Amino acid sequence: MTHRERTLRVGALARVEGQGAMYVRARDGRVEEVRLDIYEPPRFFEAFLRGRAHTEPPDITARICGICPVAYQMSACRAIEAACGVTVSEPLEALRRLLYCGEWIESHTLHIYLLHAPDFLGYPGAVEMARDHRQVLERGLALKKAGNTIMELIGGRPIHPINVRVGGFYRAPTRAELTALTEPLRRALDHALATVEWVAGFAMPEDRLEHEFLALTADVYPIEGGVPRTTGGRTFEVADFEDHIIEEQVPHSTALHARLAGGGRYLTGPLARYALNRDRLSPLARDAARTAGLGQVCRNPFQSIVVRAVEVVYAVEEALRLIEAYRPPPGPFVAVPPRAGIGHGATEAPRGVLFHRYELDPAGVIGSARIVPPTSQNQAAIEDDMRAVVQARLELDDDALTAVCERAIRNYDPCISCATHFLDLTVERS
Amino acid sequence: MIVIGVGNELRRDDGAGPAVVDELRSRPLEGATLAVSDGEPSRLLDLWAGADLAVVVDAVPSTDEPGRVRELDAVSGAVSDTSSHALGLGVATRLGEALGRMPATMRIYLIEGTDFGFGPGLSPPVVRAVSEVADRITALSRETRR
């Protein structure tokens, strides 16, 4: 360690999903402070939602994130329907799961190919990687497009879907429309399997997380719903989420940090889903995971790229299964008449558990709303991991250390803007 | 010809691109496709690949003259990643070039904005610029049909 005190400051980034900044301070060879500041726009959305009709959250919250709007729509629908005491019929649930598969494919593939892979192959970004690995990038874009196509057909357009409503959809696709996706998805399945093989060959830095994992669990691999469970053995109903997940203000950030009640920090997202649901993957996805060297649980955050690739295999295969089984529902939606009450909803966004709660008056007017996105839940765990990453590599110069920190952040795919190459570094020495 | 408005209508002046597309919808351009995008590169590549002419409208932070319109082509112009969405137009063009997925011709209009805060609505200089750019694209469309 050349410098007695060393401070890394990271510039801010503005986008819909949030602003990110990083700050690391080390003294006498010991990391004293690590902060990941993510401004949290959902707080504004919670305010926007007050006074709005119970039918509006799917459209309003879809605008929180351009990468995972379906996650926001699905959690919102679940919560509103729970408040109104309505259960959506099986064909509509299946259609929701199919739409959500499209978002998983699109979001994960974007992260794997355009944001994360360049780290492992030594490129500053996807553009530079594309010059040397054109065919690989083409494969990634084709795979991502398969997800886009599902989003466009069922959601009505590729970004910020407009076909989702409380109770179901404005229009249900015909069987012929969905069947037309079969061939592109079969090709996408080959691409997805090749993706697992590709990323499994990357050199993985050593790292191990000790956080508790939190994910939904269900009879199938969880996407559009399930019961929250942790690797520590805690299980609770979605309606009790706020009793078990405590959000706290921390001095350095406008975002809230989450922890388990009576416990500590935890992690949600692909590593957690995989750890708690591996046996619910399809045989093909499980086999791909095994061949890629993943065990029952993966605790190396750098290997999250492999887990995401496995989840893409599952999502493509699941989409094919849902299309094969699809029979148009009797109607595109079920009625959701308003009533006074509180409803809770949680689904598995690509980045982890996304929780919504709404309080309605008898006319369905929203009195309060709460949104707990996965990025804010993971913030404390990311900081803790950053601390370990920096501590183990303090001998690196500032540029190299900053690059490692960027990589560590990208492991968690906090959001597209936060996960991309955004860091402007200022070094203060004393 | 495809016209792509890049931006986010809920981030004030960042909605300039989609606003231009909205304005063009009221004065149909023969043979033109209108689209909006959040700027995510692979979606942009899908939109413009194979087009004879792609016109892209995006917003950038203003340094000294809000509402100023800069017109450039992607290949020779210096498109920086200053927009408030995704990886930005700069990455998309460079990625498109690396993958051979660019339109035959590209025209980019950058509208300088001042307010990129939360919510809908454009600042007055950007409102004027939106009309100006819509006029320029309409004229460009006529030229290309001759």
UniProtKB/TrEMBL annotation, chain A:
Give the domain of life. Bacteria
Gene3D superfamilies recorded: Cytochrome-c3 Hydrogenase, chain B (1.10.645.10)
State the UniProt keywords alphabetically: Oxidoreductase
Q: Does the keyword Transmembrane helix apply?
A: no
Stretches assigned to coiled coil: none
What InterPro entries does this protein's entry cite?
A: Ni-dep_hyd_lsu, Ni-dep_hyd_lsu_Ni_BS, NiFe-Hase_large
The protein in question is named Ni/Fe hydrogenase subunit alpha
TrEMBL record, chain B:
Classification via InterPro entries: Pept_HybD-like_dom_sf, Peptidase_A31
Fetch the CDD domains from UniProt.
H2MP (cd00518)
What one GO molecular function would you report for this record? peptidase activity
Keywords on this record? Aspartyl protease, Hydrolase, Protease
- An annotated GO BP: proteolysis
Give yes or no: UniProt keyword Magnesium: no
Q: A Pfam family matched by this chain, by name? A: HycI
What the record says about family reads: Belongs to the peptidase A31 family.
Q: Could you identify this protein by its name?
A: Hydrogenase maturation protease
